[in-house]
UniProtKB/TrEMBL annotation:
Belongs to the glycosyl hydrolase 65 family. This is Glycoside hydrolase family 65 protein. It comes from the Bacteria. Keywords: Glycosidase, Glycosyltransferase, Hydrolase, Transferase. Residues 317-713 form the Glycoside hydrolase family 65 central catalytic domain. InterPro entries: 6-hairpin_glycosidase_sf, 6hp_glycosidase-like_sf, Gal_mutarotase_sf_dom, GH65_N, Glyco_hydro_65_C, Glyco_hydro_65_M, Glyco_hydro_65_N, Malt_Pase/Glycosyl_Hdrlase. Residues 724-778 form the Glycoside hydrolase family 65 C-terminal domain. The lineage of its organism: Bacteria, Bacillati, Actinomycetota, Actinomycetes, Pseudonocardiales. Residues 9-263 form the Glycoside hydrolase family 65 N-terminal domain. Pfam families: Glyco_hydro_65C (PF03633), Glyco_hydro_65m (PF03632), Glyco_hydro_65N (PF03636).
Length: 807
């Protein structure tokens, strides 16, 4: 297998969920899990099709209260295709003697291939090959091509090909007690002799979805007018097609499907569009060609080559592949955010968290329009966030911790601990820091792209309203002569309150406080730098008073930051007074303690009692801010930052973190990269392995971890290669781990495609040839050069060698 191939041998029912998620095919508009086409949801299989941004709400009685949940809806299964030989049973992999089984995801052409050879109960040997795609250029189209070879028998084969609308959202075991039936009002019909159609609508959001499937049959390459019958129920429709095959001959069923909804652009009505689309669609092979062509462009734009390690290269390719299947060029026309688990499963119900913080940099440096459209998802929900702030008695915009269709807070208020079986209050919605992430993304997007139009028209307004909210969240504490923030939750979700206290939330989460100071500074600066006319307009529109901006400036100078010990930034006020956890004891007893919160609760204990974090919290500061930026920020607050602050804090929290979120490994690899390279590479390996090896044991089958996937690429580009955009220049500060071989990547900076190669402390930047345009500024160390199209610059920091750490 080369690094463009990812796959599995044999059939392992226990592992099928993970494989389905990892073999999901999608195009940003919709995605379908890599489930076997003959399967329906059961203990092994979970066919799932999800359309970006298609949510629905359902109410359930849970633990004596009514709970309303919004979920990304599992749509009708267009894959449905099965067969039987003569009058034998319908094909079931577990009832035949499997001679060969192989599933290969061709990452280059974006095709999933399944190769099977089996002997049935009557001793007949059959070869079966299936290929499928979800078209990257034609966003509504997908194809499934099935070839069956009768190796040593002759007889009739009946294929059943159709659309199964009998689906629910039941992919995540712990949500199954909730209401799961989102689709209603199913109708189906046969539109032509080879095409079936099924349409339905979501129950509350009333999105109408229509799917059409066209099936054509070929024997030994020739189309045949096979005998067909129609199977029609309200929520399932299929054609049964019977053909005669001679020993050694080959029968092929080519299925082309289309998926449309009432949310689509350029659409009169979804059923009309779905039927039209399959009627006009060419055959499977022709569609494969245009599909591969669309992907080849994306592969060029997102090229990220590691010369040494084929395994690492394959993982990075897989990560980019799933990133682009979730957020694709089609996304810029859709009103969608970054679903934490991709379009690959139902964990977190397809909700949008702060994870775009880890996803945007990879997109911004290649397809800035995509990053912009993800930011527009937030802009469109600004009014909702204003209303949420107002409901909390505060001005400005309070963005929800979990967002879905309209930007309402979608966090669950109770969650199930599968270990204890108990439903528990969930206070993670108090993660107000999501607003800081949105503001940070806006600022960085603007810095990287120079997109003044976006900032002026949309970004600044969001950023100012978020700042207004955070400023109002702070209280002036006279006794300290400092501003404080009480009752929030930081990125570490284990701490949602003080032990034995009724009041939810913790006080003065250092990350939230320091980033609030950053926000107040940044907002004042953004306002200052806006063109005068736009600045005045915004001030007038937002009724921004002088005193308010002055208060931001004061907060940026007098925000409280808790410390303890020798320069340790306390994760929150009182963190140091919590008990120390017996980490070794827990590891010995439980092995995997990533979900320490569930373990402790099941023991009748409470994670709030311990100095134990789920994920990077204080260390997020070193991830988002450079050492200089942080020192300046803390200095401005009157807290000097001695040189050993960063290593001491890393050491302190490293020992107290269970890495129960895949984001944690991304942040730890980042913050260790320049001091303890070996450890950084270990964390980088964890990031690469997170889904591929399902290191959280059982979570990948419920959807990929998109932020970790995108984060792995960002570690290569911005962390190890040290690429950043600052002060109108592309800056490189490579500290490339040669263990990974050389790096070669393409990015786009200020409209100019660049090819960058990096190894050790050297980098070469080549601009693509093209029509003359403004040269770009590239800098590395003390050297700055201007590069026009078709030019090359070599940089070396060899005179600043990296000193290896002792670890
Ligand atoms: C993490 C959050 C993250 C969410 C979605 C949680 O486990 O703690 O930081 O946003 O997953 O990825």
């Amino acid at each position: 297998m080369n690094s463009w191939q990812f796959g599995f041998q044999d059939f392992d029912p226990d592992d099928e969920g993970r494989r389905e998620a990892l073999c999901t095919l999608g195009n940003g508009y919709f995605a379908t899990r890599g489930a076997a086409p003959e399967s329906t949801a059961d203990d092994v299989h979970y066919p799932g099709t999800y359309i970006a941004g298609c949510y629905d709400r359902l109410t359930t009685d849970v633990a004596d209260r009514e709970v309303e949940d919004e979920s990304l809806v599992n749509m009708p299964n267009w894959l449905l295709l099965t067969f039987r030989i003569d009058d034998g049973p319908w094909f079931d992999l577990t009832h035949v003697d499997v001679l060969d089984h192989e599933q290969e995801l061709d990452l280059e052409r974006a095709i999933l291939v399944r190769r099977l050879r089996f002997r049935d109960e009557r001793g007949r040997t059959t070869r079966y090959v299936q290929r499928r795609f979800v078209h990257m250029a034609e966003q509504h189209l997908a194809g499934l091509d099935t070839t069956l070879v009768a190796e040593d028998w002759s007889g009739s084969v009946t294929f059943r090909s159709g659309i199964d609308g009998h689906v629910t959202n039941s992919g995540v075991a712990r949500y199954r007690t909730l209401n799961t039936q989102h689709l209603t009002d199913h109708h189906s019909y046969e539109s032509t002799s080879d095409t079936v159609v099924l349409h339905a609508r979501t129950s509350q959001s009333r999105v109408r979805v229509a799917e059409a499937g066209r099936a054509r049959v070929f024997v030994d390459g020739e189309p045949v007018d096979a005998e067909r019958s129609l199977i029609q129920q309200n929520d399932l429709i299929a054609h049964s097609v019977t053909v005669h095959v001679e020993r050694g001959s080959e029968v092929r069923v080519e299925k082309i499907a289309s998926v449309h909804t009432s949310r689509d652009a350029a659409s009169t009505e979804p059923v009309v569009e779905a039927v039209d689309e399959v009627r006009c669609a060419p055959g499977f092979d022709e569609l494969c060609r245009s599909h591969a062509l669309a992907w080849s462009r994306l592969h060029r734009e997102f090229h990220c080559g590691l010369s040494m390690s084929e395994d690492a290269q394959r993982s990075v390719r897989l990560h980019l592949f799933h990133l682009l299947q979730t957020i694709s060029p089609h996304s810029s026309d859709l009103d969608v955010g970054v679903p934490a688990r991709g379009l690959h499963g139902e964990a977190y119900r397809g909700h949008v968290f702060w994870d775009e913080l880890f996803v945007l940099p990879t997109l911004t440096l290649r397809r800035p329009l995509l990053a912009r459209s993800l930011l527009m998802y937030r802009y469109r929900r600004l009014d909702r966030a204003r209303r949420a702030a107002a409901a909390a008695g505060l001005p400005g915009a309070m963005f929800p911790w979990q967002s879905g269709s309209n930007g309402r807070e979608e966090s669950q208020r109770v969650h199930l601990n599968p270990r204890s079986g108990r439903w528990l209050p969930d206070r993670t919605y108090l993660q107000r820091h999501v607003g800081i992430a949105i503001a940070h993304n806006i600022h960085h997007y603007h810095r990287a792209t120079g997109d003044d139009e976006f900032l002026g028209e949309f970004g600044a307004e969001v950023l100012l309203e978020i700042t207004r909210f955070f400023a109002a969240l702070t209280h002036y504490d006279r006794s300290r002569d400092r501003y404080v923030i009480r009752g929030v939750v930081g990125p570490d979700e284990y701490h949602t309150g003080y032990p034995d206290h009724e009041r939810p939330g913790i006080d003065n989460n250092a990350y939230t406080n320091i980033m609030t100071a950053w926000l107040c500074r940044t907002a004042a600066q953004v306002l200052r730098e806006l063109p005068a006319e736009r600045r005045h307009e915004l001030i007038e529109q937002l009724e921004l008073r002088h005193g308010e901006v002055d208060r931001w400036k004061r907060i940026a100078q007098r925000m409280f930051v808790p410390f303890h010990g020798d320069g340790i930034i306390s994760q929150f006020e009182g963190y140091d007074r919590l008990a120390e956890l017996d980490w070794d004891g827990y590891r010995q007893r439980y092995g995997d303690i990533q979900r320490l919160d569930r373990i402790l609760e099941a023991e009748g204990d409470d994670p709030n009692r311990y100095q134990a974090s789920k994920q990077a919290d204080v260390l997020m500061l070193f991830y988002l801010l450079s050492a200089d930026e942080l020192a300046e920020l803390l200095g401005g607050l009157g807290y000097p930052m001695p040189a050993d602050t960063i290593p001491n804090n890393i050491q302190y929290y490293l020992q107290r973190t269970s890495h129960g979120s895949t984001l944690s490994a991304v942040v730890h690899a980042w913050v260790l990269a320049r001091s303890r390279r070996h450890q950084a590479l270990e964390f980088f390996d964890h990031v690469l392995a997170a889904d591929i090896h399902d290191t959280q044991r059982g979570t990948t089958s419920e959807g990929i971890h998109l932020a970790a996937m995108a984060g792995s690429v960002d570690l290569l580009q911005r962390c190890f290669a040290g690429i950043e955009v600052l002060d109108g220049a592309l800056r490189l500060n490579p500290l490339w781990p040669t263990e990974l071989g050389d790096l070669e990547l393409t990015i786009r900076y200020r409209g100019q495609p660049l090819n960058i190669t990096v190894t050790g402390r050297t980098a070469t930047v080549r601009t693509a040839p093209g029509p003359a345009q403004q040269p770009i500024t590239c800098a590395c160390g003390p050297r700055t050069v201007q590069l026009g199209p078709g030019e090359t610059a070599h940089f070396s920091l060899e005179q600043h060698p990296w000193k290896p750490d002792s670890s």
